């Protein structure tokens, strides 16, 4: 039985993680943390705590973090220091933050951390396909579309996709100049962020070559698409000391 705590428990993703852990016969949800909702009770579980100390008090072995970019790194550092494995779905973790996590883990060799820009298995496969296509189509742009409550732009998935395309392509490609209408740039890849009500999570990668284009698109109209990947990470993180980035290593891709 894996004892699981949830950070950001009263958010949409937090409630979904809690419900899936509660329904899994191999897991037990033991602690919920969300400072803005302290005192509320989770379905079939304890009251929501204000601080991460509740995870240690409840004997949590794995903590799932779906909080905010301004809180996630402090949470991860605390979890590592206290020997609790972490599954992190909060966006905003880039290469510098990953290096900091690796540094924290050096002093705790038995602790595992999984950081995934996207827990949707379809999105992971789309990234893999984009990386493969970049070997033959160096000209590419990324368009990511999310709901208007998403705090970061570009999304972590879009940033990771751009970096994978940049590292895979055999030659650089420089499109038209930047300008205020051309989006941002990540390692030479143009990335465009759309934030609108009615959207959930969508990404399109468009490749261009002489006489042809190739489009790889993934749509997630329902947040439940993330749950299979989250559950895989909860099961696997305890057996993977150190930092694991992305779902691919867990899916044998």
Explain how this protein is built:
The two termini are 27 Å apart. The chain has helices at 12-23, 53-57, 72-81, 95-106, 121-134, 156-168, 227-237, 248-251; strands at 2-7, 27-33, 62-65, 85-88, 112-115, 139-146, 184-186, 189-195, 201-209, 212-220, 242-245. With 253 residues, it is of the alpha/beta class. It folds into two domains: 2-115 and 224-251, NAD(P)-binding Rossmann-like Domain (Rossmann fold), CATH 3.40.50; 121-221, Dihydrodipicolinate Reductase, domain 2 (2-Layer Sandwich). Strand 9 (201-209) and strand 10 (212-220) form a beta hairpin. The radius of gyration is 19 Å and the shape is elongated. It has a six-stranded parallel sheet, sandwiched between helices. The protein has a five-stranded mixed sheet with strand order 7-8-6-9-10.
Summarize the structure.
The chain folds into two domains: 2-115 and 224-251, 3-Layer(aba) Sandwich (Rossmann fold), CATH 3.40.50.720; 121-221, Dihydrodipicolinate Reductase, domain 2, CATH 3.30.360. Helix content is 32%, strand content 26%.
Radius of gyration from the CA trace?
19 Å
Oligomer status? single chain
- Which CATH class of the largest domain? Alpha Beta
Which residues sit in consecutive blocks of at least 5 with pLDDT less than 50? Answer: none
Q: Strands of the biggest beta sheet: in what spatial order?
A: 2-1-3-4-5-11
Overall average pLDDT: 94
Q: How many domains make up the coordinates?
A: 2
What form results from the Cα inertia axes?
A: elongated
CATH topology of the largest domain: Rossmann fold
Number of DSSP-assigned strands: 11
Helix run count: 8
> Would you list the SSEs in sequence order as H and E?
EHEHEHEHEHEHEEEEHEH
Helicity, as a percent range: 25-40%
The largest sheet is: 6 strands, parallel
């Amino acid at each position: 039985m894996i004892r699981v705590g949830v950070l950001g428990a009263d958010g949409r993703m937090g409630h979904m993680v809690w419900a899936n852990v509660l329904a899994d016969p191999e897991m037990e949800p033991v602690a919920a943390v969300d400072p803005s909702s302290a005192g509320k009770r989770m379905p079939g579980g304890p009251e929501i705590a204000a601080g991460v100390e509740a995870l240690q008090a409840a004997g949590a072995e794995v903590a799932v973090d779906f909080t905010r970019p301004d809180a996630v790194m402090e949470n991860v550092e605390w979890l590592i220091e206290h020997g609790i494995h972490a599954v992190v779905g909060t966006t905003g973790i880039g290469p510098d933050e990953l290096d900091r996590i690796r540094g924290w883990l050096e002093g705790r060799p038995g602790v595992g951390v999984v950081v995934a820009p996207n827990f949707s298995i379809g999105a992971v496969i789309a990234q893999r396909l984009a990386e493969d296509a970049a070997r033959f189509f160096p000209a590419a742009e990324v368009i990511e579309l999310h709901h208007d409550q998403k705090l970061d732009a570009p999304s972590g998935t879009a940033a990771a996709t751009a970096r994978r395309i940049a590292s895979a392509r055999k030659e650089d490609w420089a499109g038209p100049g930047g300008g205020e209408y051309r989006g941002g740039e990540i390692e030479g890849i143009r990335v465009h962020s759309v934030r609108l009500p009615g959207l959930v999570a969508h990404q399109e990668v468009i490749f261009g070559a002489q006489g042809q284009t190739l489009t790889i698109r993934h749509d997630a109209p329902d947040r439940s698409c993330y749950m299979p990947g989250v559950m895989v990470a909860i099961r696997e993180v305890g057996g993977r000391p150190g930092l694991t980035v992305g779902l691919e290593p867990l899916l044998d891709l």
